[in-house]
Design goal:
alpha+beta, Helix Hairpins, D-amino Acid Aminotransferase, Chain A, domain 1, OB fold (Dihydrolipoamide Acetyltransferase, E2P), 5 domains, five-stranded mixed sheet
């Protein structure tokens, strides 16, 4: 078996490219290629190495993870953390079990972390690093929002899990960053940066969660040779454990299909599944390879791809001036839905894909959710980067941020910036003026009906003009005016968030308004020192708020808005939190809420919604209370009540639901 010079050069190129991508992804929280492209190149490298026997010492097929950065202390893991072999063949998993029971769970997409507890308290947290040496992040782990500070077990407990940030928290955090070029690309990047911060106060604001997926050691505890018992033990100690079920060779394909149906609505980032042999001794008897343990294997979703033709690239200007490219292509069916558009993110990616109108491109859904371009088969590179803004016609400019090129409009008065501001003001989290779409706002701005937020409360002055517009009529006009009138009775934090102060998201607006007793005057006249003292605000946000209200035009608009709206001050009793300190778990489908709506309702009353049933869980919410799901079985074992949604609402929400 020998390699030609061409094969050796290709292997060298692949190793360099893949290692560069890994370094960017793992150590710098940046992304220079899609997962699809990485997997394709990795598989090509594996095939070449197997064919030729030529393997470089720095090949990603024999090295795991990133090298720990210098700013954090390093520590060698007691047991090396190997990566998992992978497959995309569902039937192969049944054969892999070889008649033995297995545990199927999500493969979470975050930052793997090892925790050590001594005498019932967190003593150490270390990231995976390169599999042998990781970074010590103990102080940061202490502010993970769902991690128990103390546990019942008093021996030395070592466990592994994934630090993650949910999609909903990711969207909230990104929405609070006005400059879209500075926003995070995905929850995994945000989480990696949050866990590896030098300042744990930054980590605390990122709402990092930890899901245990492996017990390394717990001396003195008999698990009966079953990993499932280890999961139960970790849950009983108060850890949230990765969602898991027991499977066999006969039902694993069906179980995978169940997970596949759930992934679109699952709030925790996942890039596949993990299959672990339940029998500990049997799994250990299989040993390990140089890189993979033989007692577990990863299942990655087979990316369904379609070839199509690129028909256009729309350049969409935002309220920050950033101009985003969006690919428009002939519609194709992917994962059960019709797809015809995909974000291209920035100019650097446009260039790397060598896009041109009429090119044949391959598209897929990343993690079965987000449409992406996998590759460009034509690679004409003929697409021109706009020299003028598509909205105002003023000159554009390219700006580089850490090696990535973004396109911006240079016009401070660009209507797109004004449009974005109005879109936020009328949004559901802000003033919730239903019936006024972005297209409608754009029309109103174009003809001068609105130029400042208070104008939305004087639409009656323009009835004839609005009714005659395309897309409007008497009924839609009446509905819009009614919605604007309803929004006059609002909460102060909605108004504060709605006006679009830099760095002030919904959660921050709530903190500020609560601190100042929901007094609009106190909020607008607060000093930077007063604001910075609010827990969760800090100096940067304080400066943003002060800078905003120090502008006479902004203050004038704020006062005019207060003439139009009536922010409601919570009654004395409404700030009580009857669910304070209580944890709830939900499984299965809901009839009255979405998962996020239920989470918000519980949190507004002081409680929290967690992912796993433990001894600290108040109740499990499951409309199929008689099912034998893992959560139901665990709840019965721990004596935790299992309530239907109706029972939960009656017992815990009471009048709040009326």
């Amino acid at each position: 078996m020998s390699a030609t010079e061409a094969q050796k050069n290709r292997i060298r190129d692949l190793v360099t490219t893949l290692n560069c991508a890994s370094e960017k992804y793992y150590a710098q929280d940046d992304e220079i290629m899609s997962n699809y492209e990485y997997d394709r190149l990795y598989d090509e490298l594996v095939a070449l190495e197997e064919e030729t026997g030529f393997v470089l010492s720095n090949s990603p097929t024999v090295n795991v993870g990133y090298e720990a950065v210098h700013e954090l202390p390093k520590e060698r893991h007691e047991k090396p953390m190997l990566s998992l072999g992978k497959t995309k063949d569902r039937n192969e998993l049944a054969e892999w079990l070889n008649g033995h029971p297995g545990i199927l769970s999500w493969k979470l997409d975050g930052l793997t972390t090892v925790l050590t507890y001594n005498d019932g308290k967190l003593a150490k947290a270390v990231t995976r690093g390169n599999g042998e040496i990781g970074e010590v992040v103990t102080n940061n782990a202490r502010v993970f929002i769902n991690l128990p500070h103390t546990i019942e077990y008093k021996g030395e407990l070592v466990l592994r899990g994934e630090a993650v940030i949910s999609y909903s928290d990711f969207e909230t955090i990104n929405a609070s960053i006005p400059d879209e070029a500075q926003r995070f690309k995905n929850p995994r990047n945000l989480c990696s940066g949050a866990v590896r911060q030098l300042d744990s106060s930054v980590t605390a604001k990122r709402r990092v969660r930890f899901y245990a997926f492996s017990l390394v050691s717990a001396p003195g505890v008999d698990f009966g040779d079953r990993h499932m018992a280890e999961f139960d033990f970790l849950e009983a100690q108060g850890f949230e454990v990765v969602d898991h079920i027991l499977v066999s060779g006969s039902d694993i394909v069906g179980r995978i299909e169940e997970y596949e149906k759930r992934i679109a609505d699952y709030d925790i980032p996942s890039d596949g599944l993990v299959l672990l042999l339940d029998e500990i001794s049997y799994g250990e008897s299989l040993g390990v390879t140089a890189k993979f343990p033989r007692n577990a294997i990863a299942f990655k979703w087979t990316d369904e791809t379609r070839d199509t033709v690129l028909r256009d690239v729309e350049w969409s200007a935002s309220r920050t001036g950033l101009i985003n490219p969006v690919a428009v292509f002939d519609p194709v069916e992917l994962e059960g839905t019709t797809v015809s558009r995909a974000s291209v993110h920035n100019v650097s990616i446009v260039r790397s894909l060598k896009l041109g109108i009429g090119d044949t491109i391959t598209v897929y859904k990343a993690n079965m959710i987000i449409p992406q371009i996998a590759e460009n088969k034509t690679s004409s590179g003929s697409l021109e980067i706009p020299e003028t803004c598509p909205v105002c016609g003023h000159a554009t400019e390219l700006r580089e941020t850490e090696g990535t090129a973004y396109l911006y409009c240079t016009n401070p008065g660009c209507p797109a910036k004004q449009l974005g501001a109005f879109v936020q003001f009328v949004s559901r989290d802000a003033m919730n003026i239903d019936g006024l779409s972005e297209a409608g706002i754009e029309k109103f701005i174009a003809v001068g009906i609105i130029s400042a937020f208070p104008d939305l409360y004087h639409l009656k002055d323009h009835k004839a003009e609005i009714v005659s517009m395309e897309g409007f009529g008497e009924k839609s006009y009446d509905n819009l005016v009614d919605a604007a009138d309803r929004s006059r009775h609002t909460q102060l934090h909605r108004l504060l968030y709605g006006i679009g102060i830099e760095n002030v998201g919904v959660a921050t607006a709530k903190l500020i308004c609560r601190h100042f007793g929901y007094d609009p005057y106190a909020v607008s006249h607060a000093t930077a020192d007063e604001l910075a003292m609010i827990e969760g605000v800090g100096e940067v946000i304080a400066a943003s708020v002060c800078d905003y209200f120090s502008d006479p035009d902004h203050m004038d608009m704020w006062e005019k808005l207060l003439d139009e709206v009536e922010p409601e001050k919570p009654e004395d009793g409404s700030t009580e939190q009857p669910l304070a300190g209580l944890s709830f778990v939900v499984t299965g489908s809901l009839d009255h809420f979405s998962r996020n709506e239920l989470k918000e309702r519980i949190e507004s009353l002081g409680g929290k919604l967690t992912g796993s049933v433990t001894g600290n869980t108040r109740c499990l919410i499951n409309n199929d209370a008689a099912s034998n799901s893992t959560k139901n079985v665990t709840a019965r074992k721990l004596g935790v009540a299992v309530l239907t949604e109706e029972e939960f609402m009656a017992q815990y929400l009471g009048s709040e639901n009326n």
